[in-house]
Input
Amino acid sequence: MERVRITFQPEGKITELPVGGSVLEATEPLELYIASPCGAEGRCGRCRVRVLDGSIPYDPLELELLRPEERERRIRLACRLKPSHDVVVELLPEYVYVQPRAKLEIQGPAVEVESGLEKHLVALKTPTLEDPVSLLRQIHRSLPLKDEEYRLDLEAVKALPRIPWGDGEVATATIWDGTIIALEQGDTRRAQYGVAVDIGTTTIACFLVDLITGEMGGAAAKANSQRFFGDDVVSRIKYTMEKQEGLGRLHRRLIKDVNALLTSICQEAGVSPDQVYRMVFVGNSTMAHLFLGLDPRSLGTAPYVPLADEGIEFRAGDLGIAANPACRCSFLPAIASWVGSDALAMTLATGIDESEGIILAIDVGTNGESVLGSRKEILCCSNAAGPAFEGAHIADGMQAFPGAIEAIWIEEDVHLKTIGGFSPKGLCGSGLIDAVAVLLEAGLIEPFGRMLGREEAEERLPHLGSSILNRLRREGSQNMFVLATEEESETGLPIGLTQSDVRELQMASGAIAAGCRLLMREMGIEEQDISAVLLAGAFGNHIRAESAVRIGLIPCLPSDRVHFIGNAAGAGARMALLSRSVSRRAFALRERIRYVEQAGRPDFQDLLMEAIVFPEL
Amino acid sequence: MERVRITFQPEGKITELPVGGSVLEATEPLELYIASPCGAEGRCGRCRVRVLDGSIPYDPLELELLRPEERERRIRLACRLKPSHDVVVELLPEYVYVQPRAKLEIQGPAVEVESGLEKHLVALKTPTLEDPVSLLRQIHRSLPLKDEEYRLDLEAVKALPRIPWGDGEVATATIWDGTIIALEQGDTRRAQYGVAVDIGTTTIACFLVDLITGEMGGAAAKANSQRFFGDDVVSRIKYTMEKQEGLGRLHRRLIKDVNALLTSICQEAGVSPDQVYRMVFVGNSTMAHLFLGLDPRSLGTAPYVPLADEGIEFRAGDLGIAANPACRCSFLPAIASWVGSDALAMTLATGIDESEGIILAIDVGTNGESVLGSRKEILCCSNAAGPAFEGAHIADGMQAFPGAIEAIWIEEDVHLKTIGGFSPKGLCGSGLIDAVAVLLEAGLIEPFGRMLGREEAEERLPHLGSSILNRLRREGSQNMFVLATEEESETGLPIGLTQSDVRELQMASGAIAAGCRLLMREMGIEEQDISAVLLAGAFGNHIRAESAVRIGLIPCLPSDRVHFIGNAAGAGARMALLSRSVSRRAFALRERIRYVEQAGRPDFQDLLMEAIVFPEL
Output
């Protein structure tokens, strides 16, 4: 088969591709992650790259999705770009996945450290003909329990040859739940580490924790490299069903991602990955299935029931995780098919189950969940919001990284705040919410979501002045409000909010809001009965509570009752890692939370129709 | 690097070898096992092959070790034969390892079956939106204990996608010690298998057992393919210390051997290896170390103390064993450094620990053990007999396979019995004992082991007649007694017993007898206090008790007190497999057996000198 060479700039990475393959496919072995929310089907138009060298005919879908000025800049769609000769391609930063800020922000109540891990110092002596005691027996004899009370992990046995063995030498035995899981040379009692892992559909975050002090030793996040196969869980499930070896491929990607993070946080902290003896994983049910190598197809079709939703215990080595092979791992249990262990961990972190007042916790994300309750009763539901909050399916959307517009206000003209204060490149989730809230407030967007045309606005809202009204343009067949002009933007292209973008946000926000209202109705409470709204997820502290209220994403409450809690799933996983009693509480909690099903409920459809309409305050 | 082609006949197997490599090395990838007791050092001269095609200059060691008539037949030593061009080589059956008979003969008391394994039938139902119960929860709910009382092996989790899931479907859960280790489609409750494995230095034997009925489902044995690296444990230990990757290589060989046997017995019995859920392994300490991948060097140098001598529990998958990956495996504990779990298993099988009378059990082999005792007290020692009993280091020695001389008697002339009644090819262990016993009885060998020369014999033993006396010849610098002449033998070469052969047997038999006498002295008993002598090991039922008594191998007792018990280590492993209480008894037994060290005891040296002299009856 003939092959062509693809060079990616600015990285300078080079790979080969058979003729007929796409540039998107070529990024895979190089671990370059270009956005592909639609799963390389040529629908989303998000896998933009620039061809620096070489000319390849356009695919009809490219002609449809790329603007003339983009084509002039030789912008192409990587999934449609199939070179028949060597090419040099430039990756565009706004279309490459980076690590979202909020995933590393974890909070959560203080937890008394009782990880369940013990380390014991063992004094060794030189065996003699008169006292020929094997190394393993010497170790057993110096532990607090009797021989037969310990089990022994084969990994600890395999470590025996690495332990110098004679008078004056010492070794350290690591014990978990009555099993000796590790044996090490010297006194390593101070080295007891654990890692909490939050496996999100979009982003994976890892937290290194010192299991003696409870202190955080480091945190890192990266894009879930399964995103190459689609943005949401449904496209991933579809991929496993349609492609041979699809499941294996997605499974190996997750393991590789987790290992990359684990290795990097350990390296940064100067900790040997072999001294990570305990890990707690959380994630939605699809991620749990893919991580464990389980076929997720039953999650993809009605009645959407997983193969397994209970907590799964395993050893790191069983799944090829790069910690100590005998490291004891737990994947926390799910609450329901579409409310995974990440939601359970969020509930733990928010302390809903111990709260006097009623708390509403919302995980805002592609596959988010809402939990409503107090110590008396807890309800939950899932939110099929779609990826709009992460900048996907939005004309000039991008992830929250330097240059993204994250806040907008109008004072005579439009004012922007970008991440890092750079020239604007695009619109991230918090910027999108802000933009819609501001235009709603100004009357440029109607409650039903329609954006006014220029002439209509000049007529009805002349007080806004020309510097605002001039920003209303036609973009193809729809209205667009320009947030940053050609001159203001980094890319030389205008950055705007289109009518479609407003519709995307309406659907996303409406889905979450309708879910929350259904929970309130089930519990028989009103908005004002809620003592606190906690927003978790990709946003972190980066949206304004007023804007979230303005678009109806969260109940209309005073902003001091709204809190942003960052990565609550990661925080809950960390708590379960630090404390076996918290971990046990998680299992008990799971049985107390009632899942409220939305599918097939006509009243939910009504709530959804109501919630899609922006509130009139 | 230039390569040459080596063709092995009669198998017709072909391989390539870099120039400078030996024909012995070329056999390795083809799984052809030529004897190499000295570990390819050119000392033992046992790796004889015949070159059919091609001529390669002789190595000086070959000129030393090969007789002129052998060189005429183009016999060569495979370890010294380093072809610079393509050659065809014939394997000589008497130098190729085969499966010894006795390893498959197992006896031992009846055991009440209580393997610890349970299988439970689970009725499944189609999940619905109203009752969305995951597959794993359905399984948990139908088991006798509550959810939280079971642990779950990741292998059982991985099996979930293979279970059809709907009304009317059933599945079977396999439980071991509170852990669900397997999940299978349909009702498989009848399929509960276990395998006992006896890992000998020379031979590995596997026994398939039905864990419901206790019946034997099949047995198979094969040469331990580590033999390529030396006949005894000392050369294997040396190999791991001297060669890079030596330990890994020996380890992988054992795993491969066990897997070959496991697969073949399962196939023969129509059992899926995935339905082998429990395995018990026994072997000497060096085999235990190499099997587990542990560095055995501490066993090779004083004070000869192992890294681990306790029982080791693991899952088949942890070591790449081809049973169900979650199969629960136990390597039984050793009694002392040089008295391995094989001796413990032998003790179990012989029931010494429950006997009123005093029993002496001897495992006759390269690394054998003796156990003496009754329910009151049990002593043991190790026997460094060397490989003479297996036909190694014996001029015309061979393993016990068709054509081997296994019995000899003198009635006017010499009469032979060969295995299978074929023309004689060589002398196996039982034939060696018989030959020495017969010649001792005839006066042709003196008590101190000297073999008479022809003239001396004609003078002192003229009554033997010329047909016997003519058999005395000079072979190099030593006397030899011809058992089969050039005309009688299969090979066209005479088969004889040399003076050196007698010395080898004296040393081997003396080492065992002296060990037994030391045990008797420690216990303060005499030969006649022993109610039964049990002979286990490679001989099985194939030596005559009288001959064993005649050469002083076993105490001088009436032959009805001598019993041959075949593979007692295998029998004990099978008992531990069938019954958890027997398995527990093994652990307790280990603490009750006292190891009697021979090294550094002047009284043992005296006993050894006495035992080397053949008894005058």
